[in-house]
Amino acid sequence: MTDRMPQWDDPSPRLVLVSGLPGWRAVNGEALVCYEPSASPATVVLSAYGEFDSDSVDCFREAITGVCTTQTERVLLELTGVTFADSAFVNELLAARDRCRLILVGPLPRPVRRLLKAAGVLSFFHIALDDGPE
Question: In this structure, which CATH number among 3.20.20.80, 1.10.10.10, 1.10.645.10, 3.30.750.24 belongs to the domain 15-128?
Answer without folding.
Answer: 3.30.750.24
